[in-house]
Specification:
The chain is mainly α and 258 residues long. 79% of the residues lie in helices and 0% in strands.
C-alpha cells in the first residue's frame, strides 16, 4: 500500500524536510507507479530545488494524457520559458474539458502575462459565467484593468475578489496600492487596516500604511506603523533604516523645523 509512504512524504514536505519527503514519495511510487498525486508531489519538490529536468522526468513517466499531469507539466514548461508548448497543452485540456477550472485560469494567466490581455479577459469572463463568485478570476481581471490604466474597473474587480475571498491578503494589498496611487489616502488606509486584521503577523500592510501616512505628513502614525513592522521583522535592516529616518523627521517636524 502506497498511502502510508505518501502521507509521511506529505508531512515531511510540510516540515521542509525535502530529502526525507522524496525518500517516502519514491517508496510510495514504487508501490503504486501510476499514482499521479505522488508523482506531482515529487515533481514539485524537484522544481522547488531548481531541478526542472528531474521534475519533468517524473511527470513524463506518467500518463501525460491525464489532465492533472498535463497541467502540472505545462506549469513547469511555462516556467522554463516555453510559452507555445505550455499554451498548446493547456488549450488541449480546456478543449477536452471546458469546465476544467484550473486549466482555464492557468490559460488566462499565461495569456495575461504574455500580453494577450483581451484573450485573457474573455477566458476570465467565461470562468465567471460558470462560477460568479470566482475570486481568483476577479483578482486577475483586476490586475489586467490596473495595468491597462482602468483604475475604476480594477477597484471593482479587486473589491469583488475580496468579497468572495475575504482571507486572501494579496487582494487587499493590490486594492490599497490602487487607492494609494490615486492619492485616495483615506481609502488606502482603510483597506490596509482590513489587511492587518486578515493577516496581523504580515509586515506589508504596516509598511504600506506607513508610506501613506508619510505622504499625508502624519509622521506620528507613520512612525507607529514602522515600529510595528520592525517588531514583526526585527532583522530587516531596511525597515530599521526607514524607521530611523522617520524618527529623525518626526523630531525635526515637532521641533518646529517642518
Amino acid at each position: 500500500f502506497s498511502y502510508p509512504y505518501k502521507f509521511c512524504g506529505q508531512i515531511a514536505a510540510e516540515m521542509g524536510k525535502n530529502d526525507l519527503a522524496l525518500k517516502y514519495f519514491r517508496k510510495a511510487s514504487q508501490t503504486n507507479p501510476q499514482d499521479s498525486e505522488t508523482a506531482i508531489a515529487m515533481s514539485r519538490l524537484f522544481v522547488a530545488q531548481g531541478d526542472w529536468v528531474a521534475g519533468l522526468k517524473i511527470l513524463n513517466g506518467q500518463d501525460i494524457e491525464q489532465p492533472v499531469i498535463a497541467l502540472e507539466r505545462a506549469k513547469i514548461v511555462y516556467q522554463q520559458g516555453n510559452l507555445d508548448d505550455a499554451l498548446h497543452s493547456v488549450e488541449e485540456i480546456a478543449m477536452r474539458d471546458p469546465d476544467h477550472d484550473e486549466a482555464l485560469m492557468f490559460l488566462a494567466q499565461m495569456k495575461a502575462e504574455s500580453g494577450y490581455s483581451e484573450e485573457a479577459r474573455q477566458l476570465l469572463i467565461q470562468a465567471l459565467q460558470k462560477k460568479p463568485d470566482h475570486s481568483a478570476a476577479y483578482a486577475l481581471l483586476g490586475s489586467l484593468s490596473y495595468y491597462e490604466g482602468q483604475l475604476d474597473q480594477a477597484v471593482h474587480n479587486y473589491s469583488e475578489a475580496i468579497r468572495y475571498s475575504p482571507a486572501e491578503l494579496e487582494n487587499y494589498l493590490k486594492l490599497g496600492e490602487i487607492f494609494h496611487d490615486r492619492r485616495e489616502f483615506v481609502q488606502a488606509l482603510q483597506i490596509y487596516n482590513q489587511a492587518m486584521k486578515v493577516a496581523p503577523e504580515h509586515v506589508t500592510p504596516f509598511l504600506e500604511s506607513a508610506m501613506v501616512f508619510k505622504e499625508m505628513k502624519d509622521y506620528v502614525n507613520a512612525e507607529l506603523m514602522l515600529r510595528r513592522a520592525a517588531e514583526l521583522e526585527p532583522r530587516d535592516l531596511r525597515i530599521h533604516r526607514q524607521l530611523g529616518a522617520l524618527v529623525a523627521l518626526n523630531l525635526v517636524h515637532n521641533s518646529g523645523g517642518g
